[in-house]
Structure formats: C-alpha cells, structure tokens
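Standup notes, structure subgroup. Blocker cleared on the heme C input:
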Amino acid sequence: MKIIYCSLLFLLFAACNTVGDDTDQQQQAQINLLKKQLSRSYRPGMGEFMLGIQMHHEKLWFAGQARNWLLADFEIDEIEEAINNIKTYNADRYEVNSISMIEPDIDSVNNAIINKDTAMFRSAYIQLTNTCNGCHFATRHGFNTIKIPDTPPVSDQAFKIQ
Ligand code: HEC
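Run returned:
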C-alpha cells in the first residue's frame, strides 16, 4: 500500500514538474516574441527629431515677434521635449553627449517668454540659434546651418494673436 501511495505521489510530483517546464517554455517563447517585436518597433532617428525641432524653431521666432507668448511658450516646450526624446531614443548616437549645451539657451528663451520681453526674446533666440550651429559644428554637421527665418514656415497658421 505504502509503495502505491509513494508511486502516486511520485507521479503527481512528476506531472507538476512537467507542467512547470511547459509554463517556463511558454514564458520564454513569449519573452522571445516580445523581444522580436520590440526590436522591430519604430524609433525615430535623430534627423527626424531635428526636422521637428527645425519647424518649432521657425514658429518660435514668428510667435515671439508677434508677442504671442502662449504660442511661443508652446513652441519652446516642443523643442525641449524633442531634445529629451533624442536623449531617450537616440542614446546610442555619440552626438547626444553634446546635446546638453542647448539647455541654458532654452532656459533663457523661457525666461524671455515669462517676462514677455521682446528684446530679451530676440537675444535669447539668437543665442539659441548660435548653439544649434555650435552643436552641429561640434558633431561634424556644420553644413546644417540654422539662421533666423525670413518668412513663416507655413501659411495655414496665424502667428499673430487673433
Ligand atoms: C547634439 C547637438 C545638436 C543640437 C543642440 C542641435 N542639433 Fe540639429 N543636428 C544634430 C545632428 C547630429 C544632426 C544630424 C542628424 C542625422 O544624423 O540625421 C542634426 C541635424 C539637424 C538638421 C537637419 C535635418 C534634416 O534632415 O535636414 C536640422 C534642420 C537641425 N539639426 C536643426 C537644429 C536646430 C534648429 C537646433 C537648435 C534649436 C539644433 N538642430 C540643435 C545635432 C544637434
């Protein structure tokens, strides 16, 4: 009788162990699948973030010129967000080591916006633009020269407060 019990117990134990193995295998398969999906998920490149920054940099100028401080605040926030995204999503690019140089200039633009000061805004914007070029130069992208825009980048958005 004892032997039968023991055998039954052994069988039960073995069965449980097999179930455990199956679950482990299933979990590993799921992890592998997730890893594969993650490696294929879309991650914008640094150049794409820069294109966004370029547009916000242009709009920022016209918003500031029109003393549209809410819009200017929005645009500088978008630039800041894109800079942070570059740090997160393009961490493998060596150029990211230089990106913090723009942060004090973003602060100065923010300051000018808070103070609603056009002269301060103008000089902060020029300094910001110089640093865009400073970083391009430092990262061997000096051929991407940024300047103060002459004309609004789009015609379907009002920069003056309506
Ligand atoms: C890390 C320092 C760094 C800073 C700060 C920086 N850039 Fe760039 N920028 C780069 C690099 C690197 C590239 C090239 C990215 C690539 O490989 O596509 C680039 C590319 C660009 C491009 C070319 C995009 C294209 O595809 O035509 C534009 C436009 C641009 N940046 C605008 C700006 C503006 C505007 C600012 C300032 C508000 C700025 N950048 C600040 C490093 C920087």
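Discussed briefly. The chain is about 70% helix and 0% strand.
Next: hand off to the docking folks.
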